[in-house]
Design brief:
It is a single chain. This protein has 364 residues and is of the alpha/beta class. The protein folds into 3 domains: 65 residues, no CATH class; 45 residues; 180 residues, Ribonuclease H-like superfamily/Ribonuclease H (Nucleotidyltransferase, domain 5), CATH 3.30.420.10. The chain is 45% helix and 13% strand. The chain has a 5-stranded mixed beta sheet with strand order 3-2-1-4-5. Strand 4, helix 10 and strand 5 form a beta-alpha-beta unit. Helix 2 crosses helix 4. The model has no long low-confidence stretch (mean pLDDT 88).
Length: 364
């Protein structure tokens, strides 16, 4: 049976056009819309119907037909957006790509560490608003930087498997507690009274403050329930940590084993602590890798208490601060929320491997 409909026009691409299309499609700094159109043309060259091409690239068949015909009629130039009714475009695709390329690949002319909208506007001939819109559209934030630190622990793999195993498949008849200390919590009292929030006016406080002293919050987070065993100490030594272990021993059922997830701080490995562990065989310590505090779930609790009360609090004394911390934790324990760990050890290793590959690629 003869095929219905108009026959497809042949798609002919010169070697020079193919080279340009491959550069646009694979270069990470290309505008996304242009990269997609280049991929459509290159995929059409491999053969198949518009529906098959669309399925492979995750677009609509009509989109494939549109840009295939555009290229046949006008070549590479036709892949850019055509003029539309109304005021003509002042910023074309090449301008956008130039801004993105220079933001990612070129250092700023003043020898600084990152571009500003003013400098990029001067370099490209666009205005600052246009540069800002381009950056927002492509998620570029030159003023921000993320910090990272890779663990140098020789037993990194073993420790990751051990701790994730506790989180994902905890042992029976046992408690898993994430333990750490939040040290040097300052009792800060603002130099002037805090002005309360009003309609259209946020809460206001002075930027300067009076220091009244510091305290250390010892916390043990129950992974299963989210409840927290806590204590406050003015000092942060192995003696205080052993006293906190005594408190955990008193406040947990005696018939259960207790698995503690800890970091590698020296007080956790002191001789006085080791002697205590020998006398309390139901306690088992599991150390996270160095520079891997993200593996200790109690850090998520510390982030919560910092955000909710410590950061904006005003306290006249250390006793006042400790009283407020205890009240907040008591309220938390009335309705605790568990922080659920989801990543397996293998997923963590894959993420780190991918990040290392990105670092290595960026050096070439």
């Amino acid at each position: 049976m003869a095929k219905r409909g108009r026959p497809r026009r042949p798609l002919l691409v010169s070697e020079e056009d193919r080279r340009v299309l491959e550069q646009v499609a694979h270069r990470r700094t290309s505008a996304q819309v242009m990269a997609q159109r280049a991929r459509i043309i290159l995929r059409c060259l491999e053969g198949g119907t518009d529906t098959e091409v669309a399925r492979d690239l995750g677009v609509w068949p009509q989109t494939v037909g549109k840009w295939r015909n555009r290229y046949i009629d006008g070549g590479l130039q036709a892949l850019s957006d055509k003029d539309r009714p109304g005021q003509p475009r002042k910023i074309i695709d090449s301008h956008v790509e130039d801004v993105i390329r220079q933001t990612l690949e070129q250092p700023p002319p003043d020898g600084g560490t990152h571009w500003s909208t003013r400098m990029m506007a001067e370099r490209t001939g666009l205005n600052q608003t246009a540069v800002s819109r381009i950056w927002r559209a492509f998620g570029l934030k030159p003023h921000l930087v993320d910090e990272w630190k890779l663990s140098n622990d020789p037993f990194f793999i073993e420790k990751v498997r051990d701790v994730t195993g506790l989180y994902l498949s905890p042992p029976e008849a046992a408690l898993v507690l994430c333990v750490d200390e939040k040290s040097q919590i300052q009792a800060l009292n603002r130099s002037s009274p805090v002005l309360p929030m009003m309609p259209a006016v946020p809460e206001r406080q002075t930027h300067d403050y009076i220091r009244a002293g510091t305290t250390t919050l010892f916390a043990a987070l129950d992974v299963a329930s989210g409840k927290v065993i806590s204590a406050h100490r003015r000092r942060h030594r192995s003696v205080e940590f052993r006293a906190f272990l005594d408190q955990i021993d008193r406040e947990t059922p005696a018939e259960l084993d207790v698995h503690l997830v800890l970091d590698n701080y020296g007080t956790h490995k002191a001789p006085i602590v080791k002697a205590w562990l020998l006398a309390h065989p139901r306690f088992h310590l599991h150390f996270i890798p160095t520079y891997s505090s993200w593996m200790n779930l109690v850090e998520r609790f510390f982030a919560e208490i910092t955000r909710r009360m410590i950061r904006r609090g005003s306290y006249t004394s250390v006793t006042d601060l400790e009283r407020a911390l205890k009240a907040w934790i008591d309220t938390w324990n009335d309705n605790p929320r568990a922080f659920v760990w989801t990543k397996t050890a293998e997923e963590i290793f894959e993420t780190i491997a991918a990040y290392l590959n990105r670092i290595n690629d960026s050096e070439h």
